[in-house]
Amino acid sequence: MAGILYESVYMSGEKPESGAKAYLRHLKSSKDLETTYEAIRAGFVALALEKNRRATPFVAQARCNSVRSPGQSTKSRGLYGKDTCGLA
């Protein structure tokens, strides 16, 4: 049973040699650990775009709530019976 568990740990099916350091297969020098300026910038831009995408509905709701007067209900209707804030 121990052999079965040992084999299932390695997704690629390869068993490392005893005493071998797995990271040596990927790293040849310290330069391999450095992140380029372009990669850092791309990561920050991707993160900013994702945050913007997630925040957009909340910002729209906040703008809608700030336009309403305190006496209006959340289901108030504007002119022609349409919902002014996109709420049902």
DSSP summary, beta strand count: 0
Overall average residue pLDDT:
75
Range of helix content: 40-55%
H/E topology pattern: HH
Uncertain parts: none
- Structural class by sheet pairing and helices: mainly alpha
Q: How large a portion of the residues is in β-strands, by DSSP E?
A: under 5%
Q: Give the biggest beta sheet.
A: none
Principal-axes geometry comes out as: elongated
Count of helix runs: 2
Distance between the termini: 58 Å
Radius of gyration: 28 Å
Tell me about this structure:
This protein has helices at 2-9, 37-67. The chain is an all-alpha fold and 88 residues long. It has a domain at 34-67. The longest helix has 31 residues, at 37-67. The mean pLDDT is 75.
Brief digest:
This protein is an all-alpha fold and 88 residues long.
